[in-house]
Amino acid sequence: MLYVISTPIGNMEDITIRALNTLKKLDLIAAEDTRVTKKLLTHYGIKVKVVSCFKYNEAQMCDYLIGVLKDGLQVGLVSEAGTPSISDPGYRLVKRSLECGIIVNVIPGPSAVTAALSISGVEADRFVFEGYVAKKSKDREKILKRLKEEERSVVFFESPKRLMRTLEEMRDTIGDREVIVIREMTKVFEETVKGKISEVIKVFLEKGVKGEITVVLPGKQGSEDKDLHPCKEEIAELLKDEKMRVKDVAMIIAERWGLPKRRVYQEVLQLKGKSKS
């Protein structure tokens, strides 16, 4: 069996009991960064053989690991931090395992993507994950132009060396919109900087940029200006059913008409109040 195991994104204590118990019973661990994984194993007193499986050797390592799995051994797949295959190596091994009829079991845990969204203060019912922003300027420009019209919240990773350049290009391409930059998440010097892109640039110009970076860009708010008048009749009709909650009505209308849930919710509240008066 292949176990896909999530490991801490910073703080060593952010690991599940199930993950620790699984690591203890493995015959072999395929790790993106053996140094980081061995440090984690040592911290918890776990002794298991670790082999390297990262971006540039994953294709070759697949044959070896599949052979080990076919021999009936238990193999764990871990990335440097967080969940394997999510902007990290691992999907090739998982794909090959499934094709070979090997059972793949997930041990979920920490995720920088969901952690960042949870503390960003933006609507995250729907979101887009972009991984790392493209290094080539032409590719980056295409991505930013597309994100300019994206109505869902966007999460992506960036290196400290390229953050300022990316923020400046975002400001020039997308406009001076709100952005949230989270640095060193779950670590001692965790920091969240939120504001207009120009304001965030100013903050990091003054203090510099260090550590691992996660960026959250709230979705385009142009849809907020859409007229709710056409759907008011339908809202009133749904409100006739006394069993329907305001939240449920708002969700139905928002999905059906492609409108922001918060705005629809406020409108439903107002209409419900008027119907009672």
List key phrases describing it.
single chain; 277 residues; alpha/beta; 5-stranded parallel β-sheet; 5-stranded mixed β-sheet; globular
Explain this structure.
There is one protein chain. Helices cover 44% and strands 17% of the residues. The protein is an alpha/beta fold. A five-stranded parallel beta sheet has the order 3-2-4-1-5, sandwiched between helices. Helix 6 packs across helix 7 (163-174), helix 9 (229-239) packs antiparallel against helix 10 and helix 9 packs across helix 11. The longest helix is centred in the C-terminal third of the chain and has 16 residues, at 261-276.
Supply the helix-strand structural class.
alpha/beta
Low-confidence stretches: none
The percent range for helix content is 40-55%
Give helix and strand order, one letter per element, not per position: EHEHEHEHEHEHEHEEHEHHH
